[in-house]
């Protein structure tokens, strides 16, 4: 009897081992890396990548994984904090590519870092999805060609001249009817670092292209007390002050500007309407904000609201630019579709070709996502204005990008 | 003229928080002989505690006092468990304080998160006098700083404790032979400097949002202020803070605003070359014994 029991037990154990082995064989692992600033000065933007990646990977895995050929793959994320440091970024990319063997990397959001990372991902044929727009200056016919160093890199954020063009047009269109006189003089206040210089060069050209006389005022990147600089700007008698690029700095500077009434209208770049409302910010004058592709906060839209409910529900912080997470979320599903269509995971060239042919409808935009031949995405900018003395009364408009860069802007 | 006056007023408020952090550093560095690079993080922790309490509905000024006490306790713990063992090897203490600053940053990130924190200013009035805007909360910060400076100055220069403390700095062995409990005094100075950092953090968040990384930015200015004025010299910290505030404000108005930090540090370098002991003179800082 005992022997019979032991026999049944051994048979069950063997069956269980076989079943487990079969399940393991069916559920393959797809390694994906994330390199993002989870500490350091870019942490607000960096955390959106990691949070969006976790959310997207969980959704794909919960839905059964990615079916590639006759195998099903579950995503395993390898998230690395680059500490807003280029050397740490390079080390993380080397580890992910050479030691762990990821198929793709999401990040970084930090502009010049992603270029450094592409030098590692490119030769290893690892796909790289970087949201930052300065990558656009390096993506061209030669660099994305099959033998080019950026063949496996994709820019998930629109080119800066496009974003600047649609943003400037939207800001002026919303503010002009609300002001006593037509605005003609803008001051752009920007952090004096590589990203600030790059981004503001396009935005100033876009404003000038829309008829503004523009003064550019730069501040040291870690400034907290903006009063001396804002006092100088007030003396310039601007019609609009544009707080450009770093959301945290904008949220520091803007309340100080409002205390001494620097200008009759403002534009806050890098600040979602949702954070404006959450911080109970108000101003006695109209204030505009912009988001690419869609704003967190502002008018209600079921798809976007549902996404942000899940996003914050997953533990993501309510940062100044939570909308940036959308730039990374949808591309997980787009990549999964490209992999499925390729039929195998070890053919990155086929995945690149599939991505270039694909038109993918995600949460991001009413218009499907497509990459152009230079691996760059294009979509509209949402610009919102908040009614004076309120924190939550927003009117928003969607501005399509201009067809060509303004005079004096070389593109990129 | 209005703009110039406005910038002079601005320079006072710019200087205030810097003076508080600089004063803490100058006392700990100059009198206790400890180079505490985590002093900026102590300030940040003070700001975060204030934020948490105000968000929980506590009155700002009550939260400020709690933050001062809490950061004082943090200072006491750090001195007793870490820095006490490095008094004879100041360089070890310096490196340890850098490690402590990174640990505190990460503790705050993991406990709260990395997102910038702000509160509604407890006082929101803005007075306009002769075309010059005076922001009430900034005026309060300047006033509190002035009171703290006066109390500290007289405490160091006039009280028995202050005299004994300066005697310990001059010659620890002789001071100890005279019955002065040198180690206890070092602890006292460290805790007081920490309390000042807690106050600085509370006042800072009343003016600006702060992040877990705020301390690492402000610490450089704190050391600049203490070195410009003279280590261990409270009046020197005030003079150093005012100079940096004035340089910031006037550079923003009449120079290249993006270079304001550089102007301040150039001033520090020039002063340290011309007067290595600082403008008002001070101690020689930490010494290995």
TrEMBL record, chain B:
UniProt keyword Transmembrane helix, yes or no: yes
UniProt keyword annotations, A-Z: Amino-acid transport, Cell membrane, Membrane, Transmembrane, Transmembrane helix, Transport
Topology versus the membrane: Multi-pass membrane protein
Domain of life: Bacteria
GO biological process, any: amino acid transport
One GO MF term: transmembrane transporter activity
Matching InterPro entries: ABC_transp_permease, BCAA_transport_permease
Transmembrane segments: 12-37, 49-78, 90-109, 135-156, 185-207, 262-280
Signal peptide: none
Entry-linked Pfam families: BPD_transp_2
GO annotation, cellular component aspect: plasma membrane
Protein localization: Cell membrane
PANTHER family in UniProt: AMINO ACID ABC TRANSPORTER PERMEASE PROTEIN, BRANCHED-CHAIN AMINO ACID TRANSPORT SYSTEM PERMEASE PROTEIN LIVH
Family: Belongs to the binding-protein-dependent transport system permease family. LivHM subfamily.
Name of protein: Branched-chain amino acid ABC transporter permease
Source species of the chain: Acidisoma silvae
């Amino acid at each position: 009897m005992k022997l019979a029991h032991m026999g049944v037990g051994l048979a069950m154990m063997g069956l269980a081992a076989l079943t487990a082995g079969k399940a393991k064989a069916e559920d393959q692992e797809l390694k994906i890396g994330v390199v993002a600033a989870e500490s350091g000065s870019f942490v607000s933007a960096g955390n959106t990548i990691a949070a969006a990646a976790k959310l997207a990977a969980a959704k794909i895995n919960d839905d059964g994984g990615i079916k590639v050929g006759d195998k099903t793959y579950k995503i395993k994320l390898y998230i690395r904090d680059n500490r807003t440091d280029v050397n740490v970024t390079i080390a993380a990319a080397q580890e992910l590519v050479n030691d762990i063997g990821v198929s793709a990397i999401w990040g970084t959001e930090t502009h010049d870092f992603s270029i450094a990372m592409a030098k590692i991902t490119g030769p290893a044929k690892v796909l790289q999805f970087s949201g930052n727009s300065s990558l656009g200056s390096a993506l061209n016919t030669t660099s994305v060609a099959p033998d080019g160093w950026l063949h496996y890199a994709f820019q998930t954020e629109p080119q800066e001249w496009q974003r600047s063009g649609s943003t400037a047009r939207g800001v002026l269109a919303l503010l002009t009817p609300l002001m006593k006189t037509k605005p003609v003089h803008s001051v752009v206040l920007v952090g004096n670092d590589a990203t600030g210089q790059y981004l503001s060069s396009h935005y100033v050209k876009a404003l000038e292209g829309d008829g503004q006389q523009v003064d550019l005022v730069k501040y040291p990147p870690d400034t907290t007390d903006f009063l001396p600089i804002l006092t100088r700007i007030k003396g310039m008698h601007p019609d609009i002050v544009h707080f450009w690029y770093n959301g945290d700095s904008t949220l520091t500077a803007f309340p100080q500007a409002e205390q001494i009434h620097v200008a009759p209208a403002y534009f806050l770049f890098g600040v979602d309407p949702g954070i404006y409302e959450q911080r109970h910010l108000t101003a006695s004058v109209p204030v505009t904000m912009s988001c690419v592709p869609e704003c967190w906060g502002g008018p209600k839209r079921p798809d976007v609201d549902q996404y942000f409910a899940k996003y914050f529900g997953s533990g993501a912080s309510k940062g100044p630019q939570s909308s940036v997470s959308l730039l990374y979320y949808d591309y997980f599903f787009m990549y999964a579709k490209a992999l499925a269509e390729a039929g195998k995971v070890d053919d990155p060239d086929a995945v690149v070709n599939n991505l270039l042919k694909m038109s993918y409808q995600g949460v991001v935009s009413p218009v499907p996502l497509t990459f152009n031949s230079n691996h760059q995405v294009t979509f509209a900018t949402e610009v919102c204005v908040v009614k004076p003395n309120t924190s939550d009364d927003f009117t928003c408009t969607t501005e399509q990008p201009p067809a060509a860069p303004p005079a004096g802007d070389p593109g990129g | 003229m209005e703009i110039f006056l406005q910038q002079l007023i601005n320079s006072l408020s710019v200087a205030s928080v810097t003076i508080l952090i600089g004063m803490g550093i100058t006392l700990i560095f100059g009198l206790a002989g400890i180079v505490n690079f985590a002093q900026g993080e102590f300030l940040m922790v003070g700001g975060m505690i204030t934020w948490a309490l105000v968000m929980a509905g506590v009155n700002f000024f009550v939260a400020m006092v709690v933050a001062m006490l809490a950061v004082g306790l943090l200072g006491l713990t750090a001195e007793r468990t870490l820095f006490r063992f490095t008094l004879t090897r100041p360089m070890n203490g310096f490196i340890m304080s850098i490690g402590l600053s990174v640990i505190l940053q990460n503790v705050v990130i993991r406990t709260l998160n990395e997102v910038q924190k702000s509160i509604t200013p407890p006082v929101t009035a803005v007075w306009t006098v002769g075309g010059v805007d005076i922001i009430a909360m900034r005026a309060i910060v300047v006033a509190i700083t002035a009171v703290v400076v006066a109390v500290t100055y007289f405490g160091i220069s006039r009280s028995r404790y202050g005299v004994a403390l300066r005697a310990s700095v001059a010659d620890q062995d002789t001071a100890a032979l005279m019955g002065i409990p040198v180690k206890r005094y070092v602890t006292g100075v460290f805790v007081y400097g920490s309390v000042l950092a807690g106050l600085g953090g509370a006042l800072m968040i009343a003016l600006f949002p702060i992040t877990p990384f705020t301390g690492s930015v402000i610490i450089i200015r704190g050391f600049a202020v203490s070195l410009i004025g003279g280590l261990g010299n409270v009046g020197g910290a005030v003079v150093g803070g005012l100079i940096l505030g004035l340089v910031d404000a006037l550079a923003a108005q009449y120079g290249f605003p993006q270079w304001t930090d550089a102007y301040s540090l150039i001033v520090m370098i020039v002063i340290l070359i011309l007067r290595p002991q600082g403008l008002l003179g001070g101690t020689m800082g930490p010494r290995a014994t």
